[in-house]
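User: quick one
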Amino acid sequence: MEETDRRTFLKGTAVAVGAAATQTLDGWTTLATAAAPNPFEAEFGINDRLCGRVLERALAKGGDFADLYFEHTLSNWLILEDGKVNQAYGSVDLGVGIRTVKGDQVGYAFTQELTESAMLRAAATAASIADQSQTPAATAFVPARLASYYPFQKLLSAEPLQAKLPLVQGVNDRCFALSQAIVKVNAWLYDQQKSILIVTSDGRKAQDLQPRNYLSARVVAEKNGRREQAAWNFGGRRDLSFYTPELVERLAKIAVERVSLLFEAVAPPAGEMPVVFGPGLTGILLHEAIGHGMEADFNRKGISTFATMIGRRVAEPSVTIVDDATNPDLSGSLNVDDEGTPGQRTVLVENGILKGYLHDRISARHYRVDPTGNGRRESYQHYPLPRMRNTYMLGGPATPEDVLKGVSRGIYVQDVSNGQVKIGEGDFAFYVSQGRLIEDGKLTAPIKDVNIMGNGPKMLANVVTVANDLALYQGGAGQCGKAGQGVPVGFGLPTCLVKSLTVGGVKQQGA
Amino acid sequence: MSREMLDTCAAALAAAKKAGAKDAKATLAKARFVDIQYRERKPETIKEATTQGLYVEIYVDGRYSAQSTSDLRPAAIEGFIANAVAMTRLLAEDPYRSLPDPRYYQGRSSADLGVFDPAGGALTPEQRHELTRAIEDAALAAGGPKVISVTAGTSDQLYEMATLSTNGFTGETQSTVYSAGGQMTLQDEGDRRPNGYYYVSTRLRRDILDPRTIGQRTAQRARDLLGAKKIPTATLPVIVENQGVGRLLGGLVSAMSGGSIQQKRSFLADQQGRKIASEQLTLIDDPLLLGGLGSAPFDSDGFPARQRTLIERGVLKEFFVDWYYGRKLGWEPTTGRSSNLIIPPGRRSVAEIMKDLGRGIVVTSFLGGNSNSTTGDTSVGILGYLFENGVRTQPIAEMNVADNHLKFWQKLAEVANDPWIYDSWRLPSLVFTDVVVSGV
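Assistant: Done. Structure below.
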């Protein structure tokens, strides 16, 4: 292959400047459809013949299959501090990851140079996981037909800076206007566009263009010498039409209302008690309590607490939990996963019965099922693993008021900032940045900064009431970490009651 | 190699100047690594690559941005930077943004920090496989009949970096990191399958623990989790094991940065010169530590490395203040972030200390939790074991510790003699008294 000149498109600095940069990005802004031209072919001559040669090298020592993952990603941050948008950061990343798979063994190498010689070298490194004779690789590749779960008119990263600066400035100005108590505002707009091409040795290929962006506000307020902070963001796989003045106003209001409430917070209780989850972002509960444990790599190795539970009743019949790539414009939505499997919805728990795991190609072969489209990776620098997308519980028959009514003393979780799980024990935790006490079925004093813990299977069995108000988190900053790789994910939950969890407050009950 | 890297930086600076930038700083970083993992006595993953990236900070018309790219060909760099400069002009002015005054670059130590292995990071493929296999074998041998799965891994990494600024800063570093470790999952009662891990990193290959010890400790850490339960909420002495102390200290250190102080998000902002911890706590940042994983001759502003005492016998002495936030605060800059953080070790071992404490808890790891840098409130899940009169009696899990940092560190009663040397934060086990541990 000829060494194609990358200059024309890499000079596109991460933040687009007016028309000039938009032009250089045009090759990457076509919609992801089977018929769309392959931008890697236009820029680098990455065609079927070349891919066939690299895949053949990746299987030179045998193996079940090999795949190529081409990626070009632009990321931009526009940051406001002390009243002005006076910082910008950007990055351009380009490379190809080459994987050889033999059973559950993986050889992986990547290169940032998209030349035939560099790719053949990387393929030879990946091939070293196997030790037998050449496995044949396809030389022609059928494009996957994919749905479009995040259609856009124009990528946010291709919009001129002048269209984006007022959003960030607006967040600052509205926050200060809404409350005299606000002393600091940080606001930022993050946007990323990721273009990928996946080519597999069994003769398939898929390409996608994945936008990801969010507008974020973090505020500090001061009252009577005390300070509190709160943050919120809106985003997902959006275009500029999402970021309206109304959205800026809503973002500022949420941040300011939340920080104002914190001054009234009382010491959170400690010990086991009923916990009611408000709708939305609180779905992190499911991500930690069941989602990770259902990732099939942990189960194929027998190291998840859920490893022998498929088909068992794990929850009340009102509980159905899914992991879904098909929700419009959410952070975890995917037209295609990073192994070329089309985006789809996977049921984890159906009417209380544990149904199936989240698979990548390796675990799907192990269990002799179809992959579920959960093979994801942070970038071309990593091999894919089973990962979640948007994980949420479907609504139940109750009303939110019914759910609260059942609790005489407990806590209500409104915002959650982070969580963690130990896969094998099933023990999980999440950090409540904001909530309320529940007294006699009513929400009372605010609480904050408290870790809540439980055990996944026990928690599922303890979900006793589910309301009809499922909300999916509309933020864009949700990120999940596993094996050193971060991927964007989404969350959702209807209001629901968990009979008992351990609340890590400071105030002992009865004390 | 390094001449070539500085030349690339110089080309980037020239491109920035040509595009109209007043100042610029260019950093070129290269890395080469090989990671392998074994499971079921065969390689589970082998991963190998070389990466490179150019990071350019641009100062133009009183405005600032920073951009990175992995395309290092001269023509590509020039176009990339011209566009970056044009974009930067559209941002708002920031009067505090500038390269540091060059006199702050002076006084750099030329001492060998012992961070580069003469072997240059390269193990032979045979050596890597042999080392990893040996860890797995030792873990399996020590794991007993309840083993479900063992994964062993090793990694060797080589880093090269060159930095150049338009106002006279030049810096180059070369370093290596070797890592080795294992993790083990065991079958416990019912559906509980506890997972323990043990992992070490060093600058020099000869400092890596022998594979047998790594495997045995992996097994020990997994076995220590068997039968873990919640116990009733109680007020007890708590020993936080060396490997876990960084997690606690992180909540304190994040509030010590100039950025969080200037942005009014630090509960320590008004505490300089005050006693924020018991006299047992002294905290030192030492970028010159021989062989330290955080050692470097200069920081990200280009300031020469220097040892600093941040907390002395409980009194908060210094913050982490970089050039930019120093200008915003009107303070003299120190250094922007920690390098090797050290709590000087005490005299006694954890085993000796346990004998004197009656009934208490040793915390071996954490679950979830967070710390609010604005208020100092923190709440975190703990795992570990209960002891009585020096003897381990019961593993614990799903329990929690919550407090405010300004109160919690006053409860520090003793520092043990066992600093964890396989991390840039070299911290010994710490003993706290009267800690509320919530459970059932």
